[in-house]
Amino acid sequence: MKKILVTGAAGQIGSELTMTLRKKYGNENIIATGHKTKPDETLLESGPFHFIDCTEIHTVAEIIKRYKVDTIYHLASVLSAVAEEKPQLAWNVNMTGLYTVLEVAREYECHVFAPSSIGAFGPTTPLNNTPQDTTQRPNTMYGITKVAGELLCDYYFKRFGVDTRGVRYPGLISYKTPPGGGTTDYAVEIYYAAVGQRKYTCYLKEGTYLDMMYMPDALKAAIELMEANPARLKHRNAFNVTAMSVAPEDITAEIRKTLPEFTIDYEIDPLRQAIADSWPNKMDDTAAREEWGWKPEYELDSMTKDMMEKISQRLKINMD
Length: 320
Hints:
six-stranded parallel beta sheet, 15% strand, alpha/beta, three-stranded parallel beta sheet, Rossmann fold
């Protein structure tokens, strides 16, 4: 039976991935860890949870030894917009934390999932159908840490034989856990604003196309990649994955099919707009499809329908 450690388990991805893994492998076999963010009661009470600092190697090693962990989903990270405001913090958490996890994985022979991001690309990367292997010259601290992380994971695989794998996540959309300082957070906020206030002020301008993915597909990608036959993997760190390429007006149009009265205006955040402009419009995820059978289940219409239903239930608001 697998014994899995999830770092960053109280975050946007981690909180949902932890519960998905517990359902799949058993509650006691999934050890969740976090640093400062308090997890919700369901996550806290359903299985082991520990507060640790993933930049301190002895704390990570202690958990690995105590639970005989064989697989690590390393999700602890400072996201794009926050990373630009606090670059030193971002480097410490994103790089020192990853190095710590890889060193522990090397010593205790653990498999490692360490996600990268669309942020690993930069303004000189091809904007449309961005290839799996292409120019990566990001101009943000977040992007720099993600490129360095991809290279470091590849190094640990080639040099030490650590089974490292990862995906380049696009913007992730979820109704469950609030986003944590990313450039694509508007794609979550817009749905809550639509249901709650029937209006939204967007910080990215019209025509800003970015790859997006619904959270169930993001969880599916992580688990399927870690369960993939390693003999099929020509790439490892990290695979382009995407589900849809959308701009704010596309989401608005889809919301209006349910709420015709919904309105949107724009108040551009220069920092996040500059970050978004440096990222691709659409990634080519052919490598993931061919090497481990990646295929998303949600598109914009099906995701929007589910988001609107689930948010209205959470907020106890009737949309009729």
